[in-house]
Amino acid sequence: MKYFKNTSWLFAEKILRMVVGLFVGVWMARYLGPDKFGLLNYAQSFVGLFTAIATLGLDGIVVRELVKHPQKENELLGTTFYLKLMGAVLTLLILYIAIHFTSNDHYTNVMIFIIASATIFQSFNVIDMYFQSKVMSKFVVYANIISLFISSLVKITLILTDAPLIAFVWVILFDSFILTCGFIYFFLKHSTLKIQHLRFNKLTAVSLLKDSWLMALAGAAILIYMKIDQVMIKEMINSEAVGQYAAAVRISEAWYFIPMVMASSLFPAIVNAKEQSEELYYTRLQKLYDLMVWMAVAIAFPMTFLSDWMVNLLYGSQYNQAGSVLIIHIWSGLFVFLSVANDKWFYIENKSILLTKKVIIGAILNIILNIILIPLYGIKGAAIATIISYAISVLLSDLFFKSMNRLFWMKIKALLFLSSFQYFLKEKNEL
Known about the structure:
Blueprint: H1 2-48, H2 51-55, H3 59-68, H4 73-98, H5 106-116, H6 118-121, H7 126-133, H8 138-160, H9 165-190, H10 202-236, H11 239-253, H12 257-276, H13 278-315, H14 322-329, H15 332-349, H16 352-377, H17 379-394, H18 405-415, H19 418-430
């Protein structure tokens, strides 16, 4: 019961973030226009390519260790904090080198470094990990909602006062600072630990990094998956094209919190099934695949016909290219939803190396396809590249790994709605 209450808090926060974020984000996009909005999204995407270095893939592993070894909380939290801080500094150094291989002007590079500075504050996410391990994520939700509220007010104020683009860049850094303040406040008020007792341990650091390097590699590949298209559009076309593409992607990806929350909610039932029998385990996994496909299609199908109307309603006529991108990109959600469900199998079966291989395949394919398709089809080419790379990484690559052949046919079954149809016939016959 405590677990589901915890999940409901997270679900409510995601819903609120989607609604408020979409409203304020659309208003901001209208105010900035495709060119400036595109430049802002490019800077965020460029930084996003390197944020896996700052996180070091530690989050899930540290939560697991906190649950298993509560007596080591001070050591685990302290060590993780300093590792993340070092990761943030390393990120800034690598970014400094990376910008010399771009066509950016000085103004764009300043934007990049302001946004990248927010990774310093992400070191305090160890507090989020602590609350997760205690099933007390409601305090994390409180901090996120406060940050969202203040950030939204600041952005609206900037729009109403005709602020320049750089002001919105500073807000991104300000968001991280406010969220950090919220984390620290709730930690001091509701934790039994004392900040002065947190300490760094070299052996613990080595142990954590040994466990996390694969997750860090997978995280880097996932970020390339999600961010490289906007970076490449800027380099191959211009920032206005990025703005048009980003407007479509924001609508398309606004739904991605749904599979994450649903999969997390159903995860305990799947784990319990694994302990009872293989048949029950795969039956429940099949139902999760079915649910993901149904939800993805329920979102993508109407959006296919309403894309132009939706974009025009939200962003206005200046984003007249975004509708054609949304028609294509919205269907990538089908594979994203399946991927989220599949991640639970990787976790249960302890197949992190296999997951990393699949994600890297997808990331490499995405880059190659963008190089080929963007010159041919413009920003629609980037959307096509996304769908193809997702389909190969999430679905077709299962055929190349023997342990995943069964999952391939389960996904095909879900995509063809066969299992749902068979369930319907079974229920009908029983009646």
